[in-house]
Structures are given as C-alpha cells and as structure tokens.
Amino acid sequence: MTEGAGDDPAPDAERIRKIVHIDMDAFFASVEQRDNPELRGKPVAVGGSSLRGVVAAASYEARRFGVRSAMPSVTARRLCPDLIFVKSRFDTYREVSQQIRAIFARFTPLIEPLSLDEAYLDLTDHLAPGQTATAAAEEIRALIRAETGLTASAGVSYNKFLAKIASDQNKPDGLCVITPARGPDFVAGLPVGKFHGIGPATVRKLESHGIRTGADLRALGEAVLRERFGKSGGWYWTISNGIDHRQVKPNRIRKSIGAENTFFENLTTLEEAGERLADLAAKVWRHAVRHETQGRTVTLKIRYADFTTLTRARSLPHPVESEAELLSIAIDLATTVMPDPRGVRLLGVTLSGLLRNEPAPARKDGQLDLFAED
Length: 374
Hints:
Blueprint: E1 19-24, H1 27-35, E2 44-46, E3 57-58, H2 60-63, H3 73-79, E4 84-86, H4 90-105, E5 111-115, E6 118-122, H5 133-148, E7 152-157, H6 160-169, E8 175-178, H7 183-188, H8 200-208, H9 214-220, H10 222-229, H11 231-240, E9 256-267, H12 270-290, E10 293-304, E11 309-315, H13 323-334, E12 344-356
Parallel strand pairs: 2-4, 7-8
Antiparallel strand pairs: 1-6, 1-7, 2-3, 5-6, 9-12, 10-11, 10-12
C-alpha cells in the first residue's frame, strides 16, 4: 500500500527538515540472542516452529541462508537445516520497544512508530545548540546499545522516504546520511524494487513499461505517470525527484492490516483456499501483534480467474482474540463464495476496526506493512 506525497501539506520550501529513521537490527531474533547466550552466532528463527507456521523474524546468521520473515517454516528449514526455532515472546519485545521509545523521547516529541522496531523522528526543531541530526542519530544508537544491549541502524535525511531508505543502506549497526544535494541523484540510481511502498507486483508492472530505476520514472514525466498509474503515478513522480512532504505524525493511525496473494494456478476447492488463508491469517496476525493492535472486523477479498473481485466482511462485538479465530472467520467467509467454477486467482485477508493496546471486553460466553503485498 503506497502513501501519497499529497497526504500532508507541503512545508515551507526554504525549510530543510531533519528526519531520522531508526530501525532495530533483526529485532525479535536479536532480543532472543541477547537473552540466551547459547543462541548467539547461530541461525535463529522466531516463531514458525509448527509445520504450518510462518517465521516472524530471522537472525542475520539465518538470513545468510535466505531465511526471511513471513517465510513458511518448512521452507526456512529446507534452506537452513540447522535453523533454531524459538517461541516468540511479544510481551518482552514490547517492553524493549518501550525502552527504545523512551530514548527517542529524550530527543524529540515528534516520534512516529511504524512497528515495535522502527520509527521516524523529526529533529528539525529539537536539536541541541550546535548539534547535527547525524550526531543525534549516532547518540541515539549508542544509547540503545548501552541500555538494551541491542544494535540499531539509522537513516538521516531531509524527508521520510529517503530517511527510511538510508537506514537500510549500511545494516546491521550502521548509519547513512542522504543530504538534500545528494537526494535526487541517489534516487535516480535506485532500482524501483528498493522503493519503500512499491512491492513485487508493482515492480513487475513498472518493469513491463521499461521502468527500472528512479531515473526511468523521472524521465517519463508526471503527466505520463499519472495517466498510466493514476494517483500512484503522482507519488512515483515526487519520490523519483527526491521529494516527500509527508510529516512525522506522532499519532499515526493505522486503519487496517492486511495481506493478499495472487496464485500461479487458480484455486478450485475450499480445502486449497483454507491452506492459503492460513498463511495469510498468520501474516496478518503477526503484523497485528507487532503493531500492538487489535481489530473487530475481518474482510475476505477474493478475485476469480475472470478478474471479478468480491469482498465479504464480518464485524464482531469484541476484538478478534487469536490467529485461530481470525482464520476461522476468513474460512467461514470463503464458504459463502466458494467453490466457484471460474477458479480463484487471488485471496486477501484484512483486519480493521483497529484499536491500540485496548483489552478486549468481557464476552458473554466465557482485528489487527501495512498491506503485506500487492
């Protein structure tokens, strides 16, 4: 899901903002290695230990084998036979995340968390006399290491888009600065697959038009991009020029969390759909836990082979309480639209009606990237 550059009013053109994006390094896995010395230096996967499980996070040792978050555990095990699966401890991850956010708050009140392990900070009006944003980012990283025993990478730039890209450049435990003078040229040489907010399906679509880099986007011009890609085309144009006017929003509200997948072969049975929905529900629930969010409405998206697209939704009087409940509702919704002789080429699951850190009310008998992919 792409955020448009027009979501916020443009700041004063003469005013150069100082934005830092902090991203913890392999956060969940690093916490486990910190707390259990026997895991240090070994390939570790958090979660996903069951046959139908999904990896929630992977250590850098595991990533060298190709293990990634959201990967089915059977695939991860095949790639890395010595992979060590550990049970997730989200209460611990949340506690550490709160420690890290307390460090951020020493530098600025303008903090926009994206998840437990990353956040934007706007330091424009909150630097100490003579202090640079780069020096502040280094100090934040040093405090995180000293107080939590973990490492973080940082990106420093004049807008959110470039700050987030910068934080990926020197991982792990690194820092990258993209200055206003460097920004447009940096983006020009960047493959579109590296643009945050542009997923694999969109990359394939862009590449089918011969668009492979930021320079290619820029060369087409704004009018052509809008004609071909609608509102997203305007966003592609601004970021291809290193422009992003979005503000750091301390009270950023996520409206929904969802995941969807397009299949190489059409699904024809409910059993097949149930298997794919299990993967989608696991991905959505993992993001929900990571974002400390609950939701009450489950929506199923289904696209048939003839590209007819339907949605079915169910709202509960209470937040969805578990991944199993999320999956059960999604399967129930699927039974209303399957089987169908056309076959199914896409399924999606979304959790909306979101709440943050709000306990579920008592039940008389006794919902929660970030679309994962487009």
